[in-house]
Amino acid sequence: MGFDLLGPVRFEHDGQVMVVRRRQERCVLCLLLLEAGRAVPVERLLDLLWDGRAPASSRATVHTYIARLRRMIAPTGLRLETKGAAYQLDVDRRAVDVHRFSDGLDAATRIADPAERLPLLRDLLALWRGPLMADTADDALRERLGTELEARRLTALELHAQAQIEVGLHARACDELLELVRRHPTRERLIWLAMLALYRSGRQAHALEIYRRTRTHLVEELGIEPSAELRGLHERMLRADPTLSAGQVATPRREYLPRDVPDFTGRAGELRWLDTVAGGRSPVAVVSAISGTGGMGKTALAVHWAHDAMHRFPDGQLYLDLRGHGAGAALGAGEALRRLLRMLGLPAASIPDQDDEAAALYRAQLSAQRMLIVLDNAASARQVRPLLPGGPGNLVVVTSRDRLAGLVARDGAHRLDLDTLTDAEAEDLVAQIIGPHRTRAEPQATAAVIRICGGLPLALRIAATNLAEQPGMTLRSWVDAVADDRLDGLAVDGDPDSAVRAVFALSLARLADPAAVLFRRLGLLPVTEVAPWLAADMTGGSDTDAADLLGTLRDASLLSAPRTGARFVLHDLVQLFAREQADADDLAALRRSYRSLLGLAVHADAELPSKHYPTPLPDDPADRAWPLSTAPAQWLADEWDLLVGVARDCVARGWPDLAWRMVAALTNFASNRSYIAEWTDAAETALAAAPDGYGAACLLLGLGGMMRGRGELASTAAMLGRARRLFARHGDDLRAATAASQLSMVYRQLDRVRSAQAAIDWAIARLRDRPPTSQLGQAYVARGNLLTLRDDPQDLVSASFEQAAAVMRAVGDLAGEGHALICLASSLRRTGDPRHALVAAERAAELFVAADDEPGQCAAALELGRLHLDTGDIDAAWTHVRRGLADARDSYHPRAVRNAVQLAGEIALHRDDLPTALALLTEATELSRPLGQTRPLNRALLYLSRAHAAAGDLAAALRTGEEALAVARTIDPPTEQRVLTWLRTLAPPG
After folding, report:
1. Which terminal residue of the chain, N or C, has fewer Cβ atoms less than 10 Å from its own Cβ?
2. Shared domain check, 404 and 258
3. Is there a single domain that holds both residue 267 and residue 222?
């Protein structure tokens, strides 16, 4: 099945072309494919199809198109569903060339090796057979839909040319680049690459001529000089810099800076100071405000300089708001690390939940790069210190109201104490916003405005914005108005804090009621970024109305323009002021909004393809379509900060019922490893708020599951046991059985076999007569593993795993089915049936790929490695296990790493690679000790003893063998006997 939109539209299924003869119907299908798997509102279809001029009959016409398309695609198995006032085509993104191109380009930017990157980019560019929807979209529609896509195509062409240069195909790159430069004469990145390709092809004169023509064009047509990056390349060519002759061109950049302030004014000395620091040896620069006052322009200065300094940091720029002085809690160092790692492109499964491991990974990622990291709004040196990279090529700019003396003393940071604007700078800022003719006309009133605002950039900007919106108002009138409304006398001339409050109050007074209400309610939120849908939820209006209100607040400078997507940003001082103005009605609206968010979170959880925990019961059990355009799983990722912040805020406001329900709704999504730490913190906070018994049970169930994955077995057993009792007391058999099933797994890991059997029997008895759920499948897996441990007959073991796979298949849980099949393969391997085991393991691997389950893919690789090892195919075993070991190390999951290292050590021993075997088996032993599981520790010690013996170190072999015996005696007699048999082989003859 394939859908090609890059060029003339082409649809295929089973090798047959599907013809959609009517252009408008074809266009509707294309619009749905462009949003594959996401709901497209009917209003958007109408707007795009008729370019904002839809006739009265248009809605009925679209319904007709949809009906015809449903009939046409029915043989393909695709579903075109109605989602409220929207339509959604559930199609694999990989079947649509637009998404293959976009996703492939994202993947290409993460590939460091140009030889590996080049063929991928070549294949991606080959997808383009012409303009987007060449025979379907008119020019107006193509411009609306394809502008960003064309920009990404140009990026792909640049990356392709760059890769050609890096692998030495300079002449071929020249031909392509010269044509691109002809079509895009002001795109400096293309010009930079063309000059370099020409230079490396021996055509230095042509390269210099390209620069001369470019500079002439830029100066004469646009009135600007070439960028510093392009000028620098030109200068290096003039002096025949030998480093231009070979090597990589540049690595893919990661650019996360907020948008620059377009009318940034002043701070020339501070900008020079930052230039000096960037050129020095210190890896850290600190920007700190004098006397801790907010609104001084710290962020604006840092971001403005960072944009100007991009050329200094070829690997990109990161930006993170540490929320050190906002209304909510500051960002913890661990959470900050995980966000930075996500910005660096690491997959979720590769990000550790332990802070020290995350810090080590972060430093390793940056060690060979030259990046700028802007850490905004820091609370303390302690918060910042774990976020400092180790590599000397990186620069960190930190903004804070604290002087961060610890960073200066211990970490070699430079500090800039930022003061208010000088009168001249302040006047320039006001003049830039309202026009110099008005400041020149009223110099004394201008000076009064500056005095009232205390020279504070934030206050000056808001005051000037108010004046700009009222061109007929004199500056003197504004000064008099502020004097008449000084917020209970707090606005004292020259007092920056009072100035901000006075200016905020005047701006608020000018707002119409709907905008003022939204402003107050935004102040109550636990985040500073807000999208229109959230604002609509706060006011009870439509998304369109909310977007208009947000625009009103932005025009009043009470919100900043969106940094990313459609999210508006509140300065933390603005949010605190708004919070002060909120009344009882606003607080009631906040609680209603939180309940609505909870409903969305529960709904999103229900849509997740794989669930370890039952979806919480919604307050409103009505069967409604997902109301947002973003897919549920993506919505949970996008709104993670908001949802976790809501849970914590509910605790702070004394709403424990909402707190625990929100945390419970996020449990399945949080089992993605990159969110475990944040979820655990929120769950423990909610649990400390003493929710009712049922709420405590839900939190304990999730906490027990998370802690089981971290090896904290004793405390996990206590949590899960209490959760089971509480659920049973409340008559919730489904969740009580889920807790019992997880408890059985813990007991099995602790070798408490009888307790494990009792728990799993109890769970299955309460699950098997209900409609099938993933939890029943997990219970059958747990029972199968327990039967394996007890050496029960293989037909009973296989039956349990096959029951698990059937249940998972019935509920559409691909990863769950894969896990059941991996367990089946493992049990078949142990009982000498490698042929059927291989079938199960290979099917599991396919399912894990389809589910995009990276830990599952790792488990499948390791099981395939074990199978090939047992059948004597050592080379195949090594191939699989080497891949599994790399995946496990990337996952930072302690048990996965331990299992992979152990197996790799055993295979190395079979390959007679004794140095590798000793290193890996020693590591496996040390990894096993803190996990509290005796069987894996016993196996690691036994194989380490064998490796020492093979290396001729009998003393070390005896020492580790005797430790293995001591561990075996705590397990069972057969395990003890295996170790004794080995030790007898080490005894000297006679």
Report:
1. C
2. yes
3. no
SS3 readout for 728-793 = HHCCCHHHHHHHHHHHHHHHHHCCCHHHHHHHHHHHHHHHCCCCCCHHHHHHHHHHHHHHHHCCCC
Contact 135, 165 (CB under 8 A): no
CATH number at residue 176: 1.25.40.10
* Nearest Cα to Cα of residue 396 among 416, 422, 380, 376: 376
Q: Is residue 270 part of a domain?
A: yes
Q: Which two tokens stand for residue 25?
A: 């119907």
Q: Is residue 686 part of a domain?
A: no
Q: Which residues fall within 8 angstroms of residue 119, CB to CB, at 6 or more apart?
A: none
Whether residues 258 and 159 fall in one domain = no
> Which structural domain range is residue 457 located in?
423-510
How far does CA 298 lie from the centroid of its chain?
A: 27
Q: Based on the structure, what is the number of domains in the chain?
A: 4
Q: Is residue 235 part of a domain?
A: yes
Contacts of 873 (CB under 8 A, 6+ apart): none
Q: Are residues 9 and 151 in the same domain?
A: yes
Beta bridge partners of 382: none
Chain centroid, CA 111 distance in Å: 19
Q: Are residues 113 and 241 in the same domain?
A: no
The separation between CA 453 and the C-alpha centre of its own chain, rounded to angstroms, equals 39
For residue 375, give the CATH number of its domain.
Answer: 3.40.50.300
Rounded CA separation 652/901 (Å)? 45
Q: What share of the chain is helix, strand, coil (3-state, %, to 5)?
A: 65, 5, 30
How confident is the model at residue 32, as a pLDDT? 92
245 with 372, same domain?
Answer: no
CA distance 481 to 556: 16
Distance between CA atoms of 228 and 963, rounded to whole angstroms?
A: 65
Burial class (CB in 10 A: 0-12, 13-18, 19+), 83: middle
Whether residue 160 sits in one domain with residue 181: no
Domain boundary (478, 510, 542) is at 510
CATH number, position 23: 1.10.10.10
pLDDT digits (tens, 9 = 90+) for 791-838: 889 999 999 999 999 999 999 999 999 999 999 999 999 888 999 999
* Helix residue spans in 834-873 (DSSP H): 834-850, 854-870
Rounded to an integer, what distance in angstroms lies between the CA atom of residue 13 and that of residue 26?
16
Mean predicted confidence (pLDDT) in 591-615: 88
Sign of CA pseudo-dihedral 91, 95, 97, 101: positive
User: Is residue 467 domain-shared with residue 502, that is, in the same domain?
Assistant: yes
Q: Of 378, 402, 418, which residue sits at a domain end?
A: 418
Per-residue H/E/C for 497-516:
HHHHHHHHHHHHHCCCHHHH
Question: Where do we find the tokens 């000084």?
Answer: 486
H runs (alpha helix) in 218-266: 228-238
What residues does 267 pair with on adjacent strands? none
pTM for the complete prediction? 0.59
Identity of residue 256? Y
Residue 526 is assigned to a structural domain of this protein: no
Sign for the pseudo-dihedral over CA of 213, 216, 220, 224: positive
Closest C-alpha among 820, 750, 840, 743 to residue 789: 750
Nearest to 824 by CA among 808, 848, 849, 844: 844
Length of the chain: 990
Please write the tens of the pLDDT for every residue from 919-958: 899 989 988 887 777 899 999 999 999 999 999 999 999 9
Contact at 8 Å (CB) between 490 and 502? yes
